[in-house]
Write a structure and sequence with these properties.
Strand 1, helix 2 and strand 2 form a beta-alpha-beta unit. This protein has a domain of about 260 residues: FAD/NAD(P)-binding domain. Helix 2 runs parallel beside helix 16 and helix 11 packs antiparallel against helix 12. The mean pLDDT is about 95. With about 575 residues, the protein is α/β, with parallel strands linked by helices. The protein is about 30% helix and about 20% strand. It is globular, with a radius of gyration of 23 Å. It contains 16 helices and 25 strands.
Length: about 575
């Protein structure tokens, strides 16, 4: 068995063992609200569909009023122990807590992967993707939110007006930042614990990027988002801070909060005046129930699932819905405008390093890392690309290559062979502002059938050109003093070996071959086209969407923190509109 096959086998075995522990011991269940007992015809003030990054926030804030009864419905269950312990994040992909979506084969964008389609990891548990992501706390750039304000013609989405919501959620556990001017941009008392990673090994790498002229900064989550730094993470006291842990655990005994787990919402029902009045759902025991909402239904099921549910309920493109025999309630471009951050990955061998066989602390983040935000035009205030630079050994590289990114065996085996005994810098270069757009369609009217997901990666040729340029630009780090001192080597991708290393055609080949999604899907129910600026669905009443699907354009970095902000803002909209 080659190295790649062996590592995949080991990870799969460990996942199986962790799942047995999850299903037999229920080690984490005490942290979360108990399963609600809900019967057909029950009535609540609000029904929130999806307990993900936004849904948990909304349920928390709406139940602050003890007279308000809120039902939070989630297709998955409690997060497993692997979700709580940051060091086990690798084992969450392709697990029972992952929806395990894949894209429709496009014959182009995933050509160096096995199989050649995009793995689309989405959290199927309380907390949603905040329970299985890599925990980076990245807000984005002021430019992103000002763009939303222009699109929606609503100044409440300007940066200065969304910043208080970021601060409201956050409990930054880093006294060093509060002693600097950056402290004014952070919260001390919110539900969401955030820490900054500190690791001595990163100093040499930060110095290398400094040598190239980049600013080394303490924080990129304020007004100034350019430069290199150590990342902020949604971790506290050695545990992941998902929205389930942060926003549900502290209120799990609120008597007006009802959480219905392992329950799939299949349809939203409307009355003759197009008011959303109830949901239909299939419970864990396969019972079908209809549950009534007096005030509003809020859909927070995520970019893919929200679009699917709206279309199944008659809200979506008329022609597509009619082709499936679905009665059209509101003809809207649901499923269109899907955006994602595309990354192309690089690997460098550094100084000598023996692979450590000492068990790692599962409370620690898997790898020390350095994150950077770069604008190609020095007069531009917002970044064009983002880089994650993970410092690891050959075994860690193999894990990333073979399992997390499912590259071809020949690529991973080559990287592993060339990096044994060396420290490795594994890099993700992220195209922050793609021009390409994807879309999703219903596969059928069966709610258990996964939707057809067309990522659209590189459908606009400018994205590949730009990503290749950014990868080449990042590779200048090989010229720095530190990299020369340790005889650093860039690992050439075997699939592109026929091109001259360092030439334009090589970088374009590399960018395409090593391209991958980092699961930042947004935009399928965008503000301005599907919902208004207060997140109300056009053409109907008492129905709102609040999750990543409403983002009209993608932010300059990881999307979890902005979606949490959307949840906070949505809760205020709902309270104001239902006084």
């Amino acid at each position: 068995m080659d190295a790649t096959s062996a590592i995949i086998s080991n990870i799969t075995w460990t996942q199986g063992a962790l799942q047995v522990i999850t299903t037999t011991l229920h080690l984490t269940s005490y942290l979360y609200p108990e399963q609600a007992v809900v019967s057909d015809g029950d009535v609540f003030d609000y029904i929130v569909v999806g307990a993900g990054s936004a849904g948990c926030v909304i349920a928390n804030r709406l139940t602050e009023d003890p007279k308000t009864r809120v039902l939070l419905v989630e297709a998955g269950g409690d997060p497993p122990i692997a979700s709580h312990l940051p060091g086990l994040v690798t084992y969450l992909k392709h697990s029972a807590q992952d929806w395990n979506y894949t894209s429709v084969y496009d014959g182009y964008s995933q050509q160096c992967h096995i199989p050649p389609v995009a793995d689309i990891t989405r959290g199927k548990m309380l907390g949603g993707c905040s329970s299985n992501n890599y925990m980076d706390y990245v807000r984005g750039d002021p430019h992103d939110f000002n763009t939303w304000a222009n699109i929606t013609k609503d100044d409440t989405w300007k940066y200065e007006n969304v910043l208080p919501y970021f601060i409201k959620s956050e409990r930054l556990e880093d006294p060093n930042i509060f002693e600097t001017p950056y402290g004014a941009f952070h919260g001390r008392d919110g539900y969401m614990g955030v820490t900054r990673q500190y690791a001595n090994v990163t100093h040499r790498y930060l110095n290398a990027f400094s040598e190239l002229g980049y600013k080394i900064v303490i924080d990129t989550n304020g007004n100034d988002t350019l430069g290199y730094t150590e990342p902020m993470l949604t971790m506290a006291n050695g545990y992941r801070q998902s929205t389930a842990t942060a926003f549900l655990t502290p209120i799990k005994t609120r008597p007006n909060l009802y959480v219905l787990k392992n329950t799939l919402v299949t349809k939203i029902n409307f009355d003759d005046n197009n008011n959303a009045v109830s949901i239909e759902a299939i419970q864990e025991n396969k019972n079908n129930v209809t549950i009534i909402a007096n005030k509003e239904i809020i859909v927070s099921a995520g970019t893919l699932n929200t679009a699917q549910l709206l279309m199944l309920s008659g809200i979506g493109p008329k022609k597509h819905l009619e082709s499936l025999g679905i009665k059209v309630i509101s003809d809207l471009p649901v499923g269109e405008n899907m955006q994602d951050h595309i990354t192309s990955n690089l690997a460098y061998t550094m100084g000598k390093k023996k692979s450590s066989k000492v068990p790692t602390n599962p409370h620690d983040y898997p790898s020390p890392s350095v994150v950077g935000y770069v604008a190609m035009n020095t007069s531009q205030s917002y970044p064009d690309y983002q880089t994650f630079n993970f410092i690891m050994d050959a075994d860690g590289l193999l894990d990333f290559c073979a399992f997390s990114y499912t590259y071809k065996n020949e690529i991973c085996n080559s990287f592993y062979k060339d990096s044994k005994g060396r420290e490795v810098m594994f890099v993700e270069v992220v195209l922050l502002h793609p021009k390409s757009r994807g879309h999703i369609l219903l596969r059928s009217v069966n709610p258990y059938d996964y939707p057809l997901i067309y990522t659209g990666h590189f459908s606009d040729p400018a994205d590949l050109d730009n990503l290749a340029t950014y990868v080449e630009h990042h590779n200048l780090v090989i010229t720095t003093t530190f990299f020369k001192e340790v005889n650093a080597e860039f690992l050439v991708t075997p699939s592109c070996a026929s091109h001259e290393p360092g030439g334009k055609e090589y970088w374009k080949c590399h960018a395409l071959c090593m391209a991958n999604s980092i699961y930042h899907y947004i935009g399928t129910c965008s503000m301005g086209s599907v919902v208004d600026s207060r997140l109300r669905v056009f053409g109907v009443h008492k129905l709102r969407v609040a999750d990543g699907s409403v983002l009209p354009t993608i932010t300059s970095g990881n999307t979890n923190a902005p979606i949490i902000m959307v949840g906070e803002k949505a809760a205020d909209f709902i309270k104001e509109d239902n006084k």
